[in-house]
Amino acid sequence: MTPRRRALIEFILDNLVWLMLIVVLIVFSLTVPRFFQFGIFANIFEQSTFVGVMAIGLAIVIISGNLDLSVESTAALSAMVTGLLFATQGIGMGITLGADWLLIPVSLAIALLVGTAIGLINGFLVIRVGMSAFIVTLASFIWVRGLVVAISGGRSAQSLPPAIRVIGIETVLGIPLLAWISVGCFVVFSVLMARTPFGRYVILVGGNPNATFRAGINNDRILWAGFAIAGCLAGLAGWLLAIRTSGATANLGTGMLFNAFAAVVIGGVSLKGGIGRLPGVYAGVLLLYSIHTAINLMGLPAHFTQMILGGLVLAAVLLDTLKLRLRERLL
Amino acid sequence: MTDAQPLLKLDGIARNFGAIEALRGIDMHVDRGEVLALLGDNGAGKSTLVKIIAGGLRPSAGRMLFDGAPRDFATPAEAKAAGIETVYQDLSLCTNADVVANFFMGREITRRVLGIPILQERAMEAVVAQAMAEAGTTIPSLRTNVENLSGGQRQAIELNRFVHWGGKLVLLDEPFAALGVEQTRRGLAMIRQVAARGIGVIVITHIMAQAFAVADRIVVIRQGRVAGDVKSNQTTPEAVIEMITGGTLSGAGPDRDRDTHDPASETEEARQ
Ligand SMILES: Nc1ncnc2c1ncn2[C@@H]1O[C@H](COP(=O)(O)OP(=O)(O)OP(=O)(O)O)[C@@H](O)[C@H]1O
Ligand SMILES: [Mg+2]
Predict the structure, then answer these.
(1) In angstroms, what is the span from residue A250 Cα to ligand 2's centroid?
(2) Residues of each domain in chain B carrying CATH 3.40.50.300
(3) Do residue A211 and residue B144 have CB atoms under 8 angstroms apart?
(4) Closest residue of chain A to B56, computed from CA coordinates
(5) Interval B136-148 mean pLDDT
(6) What is the CATH number of domain B8-83+167-271?
């Protein structure tokens, strides 16, 4: 086999999820009435934002060989904190800062800090104490959601000030600003993962931490960073979600974890660690929300969505093993 | 730091794993530009000694002088920073990454763009390609993941890594175990070249011919002690084998164990 042919096959196998996305979009456009519209595509983009941003952090933790089941609750917590501090109705305290333009950076900073703090708590228990990431983050998934209910008293905060809401309303080139934010995150973190030593180390540590330790790489620092990034991006997702819904309820974001996991797996990230690329994850998120949207347009009941998505996750894992075999056969 | 001082000096290095005394007081040294072959039966403690020198294990007792200063490496990173390169017996590669990523692991070539270090893949690939060519290692593509490579190709990556990075002291734990005839010949030649650069080399092998082909000096470890330390041109393979198995020859080091935990060596114990 010529190197060129081999490179081509590698390329296709590596980007299979993009191929699937394109095929699915074409099929939906041809078969689902009212699907092929600019507005629908813009909507898919926008809907993908929250899970997309969350999935970036989740993917990085998983590639580093860990796991974070708490991202959904973390997002809910930072959404609730944002709502609680800045919303003007319900339980919102309606804090006003000296100048309106300060609202966005201050509320964003608080949301990111809340998320990062949860990530660091997870990191401490996993890396320092040496507990299993599955158990630690499952516990966080539960207690952080409990904290959301506790600080809100089960009630909701409504009406964020317009100075914050512009983020959720503005469009650029006809595409919602929210969508641009998630695209921006994917670009930045894709570069970080694919082009910097940090990203390289995340992959290497996820593959064989013994080897990286012997090579003089500080494994713990990489693992800490993974948890911190997952928490921070969950915080960002929560902030965006609060802005989009102009407030927060105690059960905001339930179900996001499954979607984020599905996107990560469909996007080609191996739960074993060490394998996966962020552009693939983004394609996974877009694929997921294309299917959501098509099902909505067809007027199918919601439980069909769940069945189809569950099947899709299985298919993705199956595809992964299939790809391995194909690679062995062809290369 | 005169040249009279050895590059590495070990003084009573001991190491227990629970009740097992893997090393019971190792005294030895390596000079600059010297190739030292470390021999001994399975379980003698060779790999343990290498890991201690390389910073991957802490000794239970003993002192280590490296490059004129007392050292106690807490991590491989510290040993590496001091100039100690290691090829471990169980290979240390990330099979989920490609050849270039493995070759440069922890030492990537980067260029700062807007203050952010960016990997220079092309420059790194060129370096690896040259190192592989010099060693006569053929690998279909430097961009394939290591999981697709043969055991020998994997070992070659690690070997070429140490030749490229050099440092002051190189530790090789059975580096040729998976290599073909020609690759082994080149590997031995590489060791001599590295030593000619003034780098000290400790190479572990079970193959007597390799030890005599490459080493200036042979140190034999038996049951965690130095059982012999001889210049390779002043001894014979037969004599070295006797040291390894615990024969009666002179040169057999201090070996006055009252009790031993190694069941495999009970017969030798009985002879003493
Ligand atoms: N992590 C460990 N825990 C417990 N015992 C260990 C550990 N590492 C090594 N040992 C024991 O220490 C002794 C020396 O082992 P070591 O690996 O140094 O031997 P070796 O000389 O390298 O042998 P080989 O020629 O088979 O590679 C053995 O009895 C081994 O079982
Ligand atoms: Mg060994």
Answers:
(1) 58
(2) 8-83+167-271
(3) no
(4) A214
(5) 84
(6) 3.40.50.300
